[in-house]
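Example for tutorial group B:
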C-alpha cells in the first residue's frame, strides 16, 4: 500500500481488529512490551517472551554464530538457564526455580531449537546432551514428535527434532522409536502428499495425519520444515557453494503412478521426498509472487515472511540456491515489508540472517540494511564480531540502515506492518502460531 496513513487511523484499526479477533487467535499477534517486572538480563528483544522467549533466543544465537559473531555470555547463560530439570525446554520460564510441567509445559520445538543453539555456541555440552536425551525419550511410536510430549506427531515438531540431531552429530535415520523401531523419516514420508492429491499440492506435506477421513491438507510451513529435515540438516549449515541452476525435481506422476487408492505415487525415499517438497515450495512461491502466504487458519491471503525465509533455507539446503534467489530478493525489497516486519524482533531478524546465510547472500547488506547489526542491537553486546561484521560503519545508522536512505515511503510500509500485526501475521513461531492450528 502506497498511501500514507496517520497514526490515529492505524491505532483505530488495531483497536477494532483486536476487539473483533477470535479469542483463539489473540496471542498470535506480536505481544506488547511487558508492563510488569523488567525482562531478565541476557534475553533478546523487548516484547513479552511468554510464548517465544526460548525460540527467539535460540534463533538469535544461531544467526549470530553463523555469521561470526560471538554472543554475550549472559545471553548464552539465559538460554541454558531455561532448561528444565529433565532436559526439556518450555516456551519461557519467568521463574526458573519453579519446576516444569513435563506434559504440558515443555515443547519439542523449543527444546530442539535450544539444543541447536547451545551446540553451536559451544561450552554447554551437558545441557545439549540432556536436551537430546529428552527428545529421544519423547519420540512417539510412529517415529515422530508432537508439540508436547505424547501429543500427536506433526511435521513441524518432527522436523525440528531432526535438526537438533543433525546439529549434534546424530544421524536422524538411526533415531528409532522404542516400540516399532520407526524413524523420524517414517513419520515424515507418511505425511507427504502423493500423486493422488490435487495437482498443485503434490509433494507438499500435511501438518498432521488425516484423522477425520477428509484427506490430509497441504501445509506450506510443514512443507518448508520437512524439506529441510529430509536434507538431514538443522537451521544452520554451510552454503553448498554449488548449484547447477536446475529447479528441484517435482514428484513423478506419470502413467501408472496414481493407483487411485489414496496413497499412490509417493516418493521412493527421503532424497526424492526432499526434491518433491522443494519443487512444491518453488512453484508455490512463484505462483504467489515469490513468497509464501500465511498458513494460519482464517488468515487472509497475505505474505508470510517467516515462512518464506524457512522455504529459502530449505531450498538452499537442497543445493537450490539459484531457485531461492528470487524469493530472497523479494524479502530484501523494502516495499514488500519484510524488513519493517523484522525490525527490533530478534527471532524475525534471526530468520532473515539465516536465510541470507544459507542462500550465500550477505546478511550485512540485505536490501540496504545490516541485519547482523540490527540483530546485535536487540540483546546484550556481543563478546566479539568478526572483521567482516564490523559495526563501525559511518554510512549506517544505529539500525543498520544507510543514513541517506529516502524515508518518504516509510508511512506506507508501517501501515502495511500495522495491518499484518493486527491480523496476527508476526513471525509464525512454532510455539505460538502453530498452537492455533491444533485448536
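The residue assignment follows.
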Amino acid at each position: 500500500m502506497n498511501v500514507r496513513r496517520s497514526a490515529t487511523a492505524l491505532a483505530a484499526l488495531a483497536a477494532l481488529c483486536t476487539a473483533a479477533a477470535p479469542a483463539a487467535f489473540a496471542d498470535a499477534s506480536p505481544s506488547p512490551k511487558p508492563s510488569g517486572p523488567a525482562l531478565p538480563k541476557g534475553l533478546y528483544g523487548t516484547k513479552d517472551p511468554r510464548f517465544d522467549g526460548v525460540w527467539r533466543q535460540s534463533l538469535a544465537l544461531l544467526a549470530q554464530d553463523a555469521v561470526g559473531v560471538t554472543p554475550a555470555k549472559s545471553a548464552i547463560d539465559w538460554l541454558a538457564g531455561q532448561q528444565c530439570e529433565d532436559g526439556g525446554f518450555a516456551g519461557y520460564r519467568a521463574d526458573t526455580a519453579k519446576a516444569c510441567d513435563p506434559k504440558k509445559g515443555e515443547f519439542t520445538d523449543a527444546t530442539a531449537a535450544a539444543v541447536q543453539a547451545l551446540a553451536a555456541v559451544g561450552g554447554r555440552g551437558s545441557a545439549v546432551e540432556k536436551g537430546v536425551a529428552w527428545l529421544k525419550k519423547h519420540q512417539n511410536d510412529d517415529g515422530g514428535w508432537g508439540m508436547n510430549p505424547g501429543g500427536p506427531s506433526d511435521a513441524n515438531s518432527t522436523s525440528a527434532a531432526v535438526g537438533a540431531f543433525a546439529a549434534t552429530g546424530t544421524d536422524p535415520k538411526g533415531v528409532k522409536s522404542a516400540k516399532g523401531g520407526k524413524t523420524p523419516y517414517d513419520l515424515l514420508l507418511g505425511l507427504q502428499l502423493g500423486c493422488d492429491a490435487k495437482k498443485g499440492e503434490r509433494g507438499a506435506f500435511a501438518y498432521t495425519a488425516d484423522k477425520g477421513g477428509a484427506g490430509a491438507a497441504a501445509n506450506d510451513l510443514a512443507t518448508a520444515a520437512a524439506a529441510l529435515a529430509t536434507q538431514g540438516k538443522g537451521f544452520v549449515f554451510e552454503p553448498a557453494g554449488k548449484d547447477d541452476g536446475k529447479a528441484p525435481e517435482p514428484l513423478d506422476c506419470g502413467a501408472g503412478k496414481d493407483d487411485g487408492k489414496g496413497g499412490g505415487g509417493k516418493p521412493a525415499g527421503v532424497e526424492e521426498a526432499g526434491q518433491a517438497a522443494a519443487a512444491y515450495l518453488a512453484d508455490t512461491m512463484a505462483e504467489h509472487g515469490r513468497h509464501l502466504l500465511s498458513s494460519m487458519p482464517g488468515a487472509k491471503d497475505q505474505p508470510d515472511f517467516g515462512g518464506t525465509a524457512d522455504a529459502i533455507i530449505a531450498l538452499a539446503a537442497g543445493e537450490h540456491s539459484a531457485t531461492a534467489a528470487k524469493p530472497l530478493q523479494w524479502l530484501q525489497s523494502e516495499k514488500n515489508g519484510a524488513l519493517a516486519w523484522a525490525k527490533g524482533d530478534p527471532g524475525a531478524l534471526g530468520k532473515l540472517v539465516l536465510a541470507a546465510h544459507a542462500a550465500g547472500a550477505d546478511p550485512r547488506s540485505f536490501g540496504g540494511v545490516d541485519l547482523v547489526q540490527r540483530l546485535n542491537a536487540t540483546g546484550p553486546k556481543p563478546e566479539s564480531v568478526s572483521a567482516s561484521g564490523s559495526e563501525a560503519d559511518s554510512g549506517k545508522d544505529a539500525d543498520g540502515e544507510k543514513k541517506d536512505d529516502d524515508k518518504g515511503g516509510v508511512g506506507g510500509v508501517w501501515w502495511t506492518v500495522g495491518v499484518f500485526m493486527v491480523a496476527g501475521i508476526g513471525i509464525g513461531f512454532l510455539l505460538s502460531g502453530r498452537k492455533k492450528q491444533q485448536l
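The mean pLDDT is 82. Compare this with the pattern of hydrophobic and polar residues in the output above.
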